[in-house]
Amino acid sequence: MAPLLVVLLLALILFGAGFALKALWWIAVVVLVVWLLGFLVRPAGTGGRRGRWYRW
Question: Residue 16: inside a domain, yes or no?
Fold first, then answer.
């Protein structure tokens, strides 16, 4: 009975980790797209220089 529980627990942990990693990949792709779009839509700064689109 114990080996069966260990296998089921391992399968549950791996399934959860796989789902979390897939979600983290999608979040990383969205952040990358927003970061790249920031270079295209930067407002012009003082003196016609293109400034940063973020404040930090």
Answer: yes
Residue 2 lies in a domain: yes
C-alpha closest to that of 16 among 28, 27, 6, 8: 8
- Alpha-carbon distance of 21 to 40, in angstroms, equals 29
Segment 11-35, tens digit of pLDDT: 888 887 887 888 888 999 999 888 8
Q: Which tokens belong to 6?
A: 């260990």
Domain assignment of residue 1, given as a range: 1-40
Q: Integer distance in angstroms from the first to the last C-alpha of the chain?
A: 56
